[in-house]
């Protein structure tokens, strides 16, 4: 192996180990039975709720981030979430302009990235205009045995996340607060886009290799009666 190739391998390993996502790594499983929505129904307040995403280039460098819009319902019984269903508008993908510098991207803008994410390279929004998350289980977070980047985590939420035509069950810590008229849910977790077959180009394509497989999701959901 020549010196140049050795240096290239070392550089790749170093890049892959630096930076990157900072959410709780979501645990994944096969599709599970959706929880029965028992009790009172709370509707997501779209004006005060947010779904934020962040993707990275290989090694965690040069992140891109933005928002998505969602609507849905949460069911509550005895001051605890029993179930819920959320629809994510994939056409609402909006990249924050501050995360894209046209000087370093060859003139590419946030709007260009939006188009790239929406077309057949990734989400194919014309064919798959929505994604869906359906709660399958909500259990207490055990601070003695479990860790989370989220201060004050109260629960672990599991649900079937469907993107395009693939459904994967994901579990992540969350901070949940329930009052008589409102439910709030906060979480910061990381998924692997390839669990849903989201690749850029064909398998092994250099274009796809340059993009981190990890995507951070930050949820700030408020639902009201």
Please provide a written account of the structure.
The chain is mainly β. Helices cover 12% and strands 47% of the residues. It contains three helices and eleven strands. It has helices spanning 3-17, 110-118, 206-209, and strands at residues 24-25, 27-29, 40-44, 50-57, 64-77, 80-95, 130-140, 155-163, 166-178, 182-192, 211-224. Strands 1, 2, 3, 4, 5, 6, 7, 8, 9, 10 and 11 form an eleven-stranded mixed β-sheet that branches. The radius of gyration is 19 Å and the shape is globular.
Question: Which properties best describe this structure?
Answer:
225 residues, mainly beta, Lipocalin, globular, disordered N terminus, Polyisoprenoid-binding protein YceI, signal
Helix coverage percent: 10-25%
Query: What fold name goes in the CATH topology slot?
Result: Lipocalin
β-strand amount? over 45%
- Mean pLDDT across residues: 90
- The tally of helices reads 3
Signal peptide: 1-26
Domain Lipid/polyisoprenoid-binding YceI-like: 41-224
Protein name: Polyisoprenoid-binding protein YceI
Pfam families: YceI
In short:
12% of the residues lie in helices and 47% in strands. The chain is mainly beta and 225 residues long. Strands 1, 2, 3, 4, 5, 6, 7, 8, 9, 10 and 11 form an 11-stranded mixed beta sheet that branches.
Q: Which helices and strands, and how do they pair?
A:
Blueprint (H helix, E strand, L loop, with lengths): L2 H15 L6 E2 L1 E3 L10 E5 L5 E8 L6 E14 L2 E16 L14 H9 L11 E11 L14 E9 L2 E13 L3 E11 L13 H4 L1 E14 L1
Parallel strand pairs: 1-10
Antiparallel strand pairs: 2-9, 3-5, 3-11, 4-5, 4-11, 5-6, 6-7, 7-8, 8-9, 9-10, 10-11
């Amino acid at each position: 192996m020549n010196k140049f190739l050795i240096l290239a391998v070392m550089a790749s390993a170093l890049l892959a180990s630096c930076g990157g996502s900072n959410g709780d790594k979501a645990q994944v499983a096969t599709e599970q039975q959706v929880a029965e929505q028992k009790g009172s129904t709370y509707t997501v307040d779209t004006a005060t709720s947010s779904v934020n995403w962040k993707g990275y280039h290989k090694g965690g460098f040069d992140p891109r981030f933005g928002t998505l819009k969602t609507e849905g319902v949460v069911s509550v019984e005895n001051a605890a979430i029993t179930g819920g269903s959320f629809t994510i508008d994939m056409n609402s993908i909006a990249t924050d302009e501050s995360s894209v510098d046209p000087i370093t991207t060859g003139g590419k803008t946030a709007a260009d990235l939006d188009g790239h994410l929406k077309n057949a390279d990734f989400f194919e929004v014309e064919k798959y205009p929505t994604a869906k998350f359906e709660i399958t289980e909500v259990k207490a977070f055990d601070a003695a045995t479990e860790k989370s980047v989220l201060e004050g985590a109260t629960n672990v939420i599991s649900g079937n996340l469907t993107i395009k035509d693939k459904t994967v069950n994901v579990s992540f810590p969350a901070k949940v607060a329930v009052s008589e008229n409102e439910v709030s849910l906060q979480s910061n977790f990381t998924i692997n886009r390839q669990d849903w077959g989201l690749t850029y180009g064909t398998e092994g394509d250099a274009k796809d290799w340059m993009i981190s497989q990890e995507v951070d999701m930050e949820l700030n959901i408020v639902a009201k009666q």
